[in-house]
What does this fold into?
Amino acid sequence: MPVNSDIDFALVEKFLEGDQTAFNKLAALYQKKIYWHARRMLGNHLDADEVTQEVLLVMYDKLYSFNFQSSLFTWIYKITSTRSLNYLKKRNFKKFLFLDDPNVMEMNSQEDIVQRTEDKEKLEKLNTVLQKLPVKQREVFILRKFEGLSYEEIADIKNKSVGALKANYFHALNKVTELMDEE
Amino acid sequence: MKNKDIILKYLSDIMSDKEKSQFEILLENDSSLNEDYQKIIAQLNLLNEQNQIEDDSNYFSTVIPRVRQKVESKSENKILKLAPVVSFGIVAVLVFLLQFPKINQDNFSEFNNVSADITNLILDMDSEDFHDFFDNGYIYDYAYYSDKHSGTVFDLMFNEETDYEFGYELIDSDFINSEISLELKDISDEEIGIIYEELLNKKIL
It folds into this structure.
């Protein structure tokens, strides 16, 4: 759900005037949303952590170019979406070239922000389903189902028509229910 | 599941308002459709439940400091990129002193100001200005015509009665060494190598 855009705009203005604490407040408002979007898209903590930091760095560097025409929420989600997709492409390319470092994969399974065993199991089950969805369907499904965005908001973020997004969501639902039937 | 397609269309909001109303009426009256619908809703609820996870709040308190660190290290990298330019500034001042070294201990603070001014001037230059400043000798023009330093250390420097011996002493002094080591202390061996190459290329060394 989008947060209050008046607060967002006020914080952006303060930051652009040189108030560094305003950036910290913006980052604190959005870091969880950024992390969990990346986490659901990428499926593990280390990659999500990296993308979260990247997105916040881009925010820090590019906030001066924010035009106040769209909501900050949409702007941040656009960056998060692009960075997550780029990360996925890079990762797939590495896999293709057999460049995946087994030590990093091992660390991925050890280091996590989810501590409770019950939560880990739940997340693993969810992850198994999500990672089997094609990327486009996965993203629309995550944005709509877990992040509660409307098709119009997703269309703003992805620069796609509402009709195309509905079709993506329909196919994602179909695949998800199929996968859950198989379990 | 024979009704799956129509249920997913409804859940995806692909139907028109009229189709939606028809579906909702059918859902109330068709037990088979209702059963399939409830099954899909249960599956989606299970996904929602799997998504309810308690995360480690300590993690989120570490994100912003780490980002801040990266922001700072990016700024430091920018400074490191300017390190050769800063070093040119220092070397320029040293060359100055070798050529016009009639400065005594009383002029140290003035020297310090001039050094800072020249370094600031160099940092604001684009590459063309930088080339003019050193290769075409404008550094001396700056020194000579600078209103700010008129009648100060530059006047002494351009005085014909120069004391070269004092210049060499000054270079060996703790003051100069401490200034240089302050500038260079964060520069890696590799960067020092680059600076050294640049200085050789510019024929300063």
Summary: Chain B has a mean pLDDT of 68.
